[in-house]
Write a structure and sequence with these properties.
Number of strands: 10
Pfam families: Exostosin_GT47
Organism: Aureoumbra lagunensis
CATH class of the largest domain: Alpha Beta
Distance between the termini: 62 Å
Family: Belongs to the glycosyltransferase 47 family.
GO molecular function: glycosyltransferase activity
Structural class: alpha/beta
InterPro entries: Exostosin, Exostosin_GT47
Shape: globular
Number of domains: 3
Radius of gyration: 24 Å
Helix content: 25-40%
Largest sheet: 5 strands, parallel
Length: 543
């Protein structure tokens, strides 16, 4: 059979068919991530003001907070690399949906702070100081060394040794404000398993520990166990969504374009006999590599593939997409817009970009990572302090890693009722733009490449957060509370990754036996307490 001609009427009929036949014709397609065919809706503020087009130079700025952005010479290596990559984006951080694009938070926030109305060029008036250092692009261009770059070393010397000499020498700017208020500086951690140092194979909390220093760290990830271990320190830092670059995600015509592309791909797969019936909607969509929690990922694939009504697509789908001559959106992202559920296991760390991709594509994320948090969820204590936090279960399905390993995933998804599905989609649409860096509009070229002003919900909520810190921190400084937490409370450490249910009774027996034999430190008592309180989402050993 052939598809009807592509038209707006046909697209709407296609979307309607997917919705009405969702429970009558269930089909699961194995491929990375999933999403429904819901259109991208205009931003719902959810009690948070929107920045939209309010940028630097506007006569009215709705915020009192002011941020000074350090100005570094363009000849510095990380600036030269950025300029070069923007001119020739292919294969770089600026290449739309390239793998490296998810690590562009430093660039997105630099574009935001330099163009926002909250920027001040008078450092004496500033409440915060933003450091536009592009660590990730420099790290990868240098061959991914373990040691920090020259400029990374200068920053580490400040926050670890209170030594600003290299900052002045290498960045060529004053150290006056570092000396005066290191806790009011903003640094960005662009990737979850690297920082200013890049030791290979280190997991657990290793890459988070730099956040126990004075500056405010904006990062893509921390975990539930980390927040429970250092709640006061976690509250001084900010977790933001993974950037989702690429023109198609932001252009106002994207919803129709996605559906056209999806129909092309589905027809190709049907003709190649990779799927049996392109008219049936995709019930779920998943494909993942063998990394991170391999046992969990294998269990997801096995659970979905075991059903006789499920089509398993592996690399065949990539070849089919390539044969159509498409560049830009990947086949995975296109098919997100034709599915209902998106299984999202952890990657090299507990969170993953796909948990945000899914929401923007209209899919229902299925979070299969016990230690993962969303930005702005109820574990994000800065937002909780202001009476604002997202309830992840409103827009995502949470499946424990142990349930996935035991093969329960498919039965859980099939057990979602039509009313539950409608509620999940409603809340997903309501919050999705809080995870956008660019408000839907007209984007002939990727907005990150053109340094367009990031006016989406994510930077709006960031500004809202910084603005409210002014009032809270005047009477209750977060950095002082963090210092007290570090020095006056015992802490356990997480140095390994464990996938599945933590061995609670086994570890408690071992730790209690150790306590009886040799007595125990405060740290050992804290570790036992963490296990007893259910604060362990990963295998934990004392450092």
């Amino acid at each position: 059979r052939s598809l009807p001609p592509v038209s707006l009427t046909g697209i709407r009929a296609f979307c309607s068919m997917i919705q009405t036949n969702l429970f009558r014709n269930l089909k699961v397609l194995l491929f990375p991530v999933v999403l429904g065919t819901q259109s991208i809706v205009s931003w719902d503020p959810v009690r948070v003001p929107s920045l939209l087009e309010i940028s630097e130079g506007q006569s009215v700025c709705p915020y009192k907070v002011r941020v000074y952005v350090y100005e570094f010479d363009e000849s510095l290596p990380f600036n030269e690399l950025t300029i070069k990559a923007r001119l020739r984006p292919r294969g770089t951080h600026f290449d739309g949906e390239h793998l490296l694009a998810q690590f562009t938070l430093e660039h997105v926030l630099t574009d935001f702070f330099t163009q926002s109305c909250i920027r001040t060029k008078d450092a004496e008036r500033a409440h915060y100081f933003f450091v536009p250092f592009f660590s990730d692009i420099e790290y990868r261009a240098m061959g991914r060394p373990n040691d920090p770059s020259a400029h990374g070393e200068a920053i580490l010397n400040i926050i670890e040794k209170n030594d600003t000499k290299l900052w002045v020498q290498r960045f060529g700017v004053t150290d006056k404000y570092w000396q005066k208020a290191p806790e009011r500086h903003i640094l960005v951690q662009a990737a979850p398993v690297t920082g200013f140092r890049h030791p290979k194979g280190r997991r657990g909390w290793h890459h988070y520990k730099i956040q126990l220093t004075a500056p405010i760290f904006i990062s893509l990830e921390v975990t539930k166990s980390w927040i429970l271990q250092y709640p006061r320190c976690a509250s001084k830092n900010i977790v933001m969504p993974y950037p989702i670059p690429g023109r198609a995600w932001h252009d106002h015509e994207a919803p129709d374009a996605w559906n056209v592309l999806a129909k092309q791909l589905i027809q190709s797969l049907y003709e190649k006999k990779i799927i049996n019936n392109f008219e049936r909607p995709l019930f779920a969509l998943y494909r993942g590599g063998r990394h991170g929690c391999v046992n969990v990922r294998q269990a997801i694939a096995k659970s979905l593939a075991a059903d006789s009504e499920i089509a398993t697509i592996t690399r065949s789908i990539d070849h089919a997409w390539s044969a159509l001559g498409h560049r830009g959106p990947t086949a995975r992202q296109v098919l997100m817009h034709t599915a209902t559920f998106c299984p999202c296991p952890e990657g090299d760390s507990p969170s993953a970009k796909r948990q945000y991709d899914a929401l923007l594509a209209g899919c229902i994320p299925v979070i299969i990572s016990d230690d993962a948090v969303y930005s702005y969820d109820h574990f994000a204590s800065p937002h909780r302090a202001y009476g604002y936090a997202l309830n992840v279960s409103d827009f995502a399905i949470l499946v424990s890693e142990q349930d996935a390993i035991q093969g329960k995933l498919l039965s859980i998804l099939r057990g979602v009722s039509p009313s539950q599905l409608a509620s999940l989609r409603h809340h997903g649409r309501r919050v999705s733009n809080l995870f956008r860096y660019y408000h839907p509009g007209s984007y002939p070229i990727d907005p990150l490449v053109k340094q367009r002003y990031p006016n989406g919900g994510a930077p709006s909520l960031l500004t809202w957060d910084l603005d409210r810190r002014l009032q809270v921190d005047q009477t209750n400084p977060r950095w002082e509370k963090c210092q007290h937490e570090i020095t006056n409370e015992p802490h356990s450490d997480l140095t390994k990754q464990f996938c599945g249910a933590p061995p609670k009774q086994q570890e408690l027996s071992r730790l209690r036996a150790q306590l009886q034999r040799r007595g125990g430190s405060k740290e050992l008592h804290r570790t036992i307490q963490d296990w007893e309180d259910g604060h362990v989402f990963r295998f934990r050993r004392r450092g």
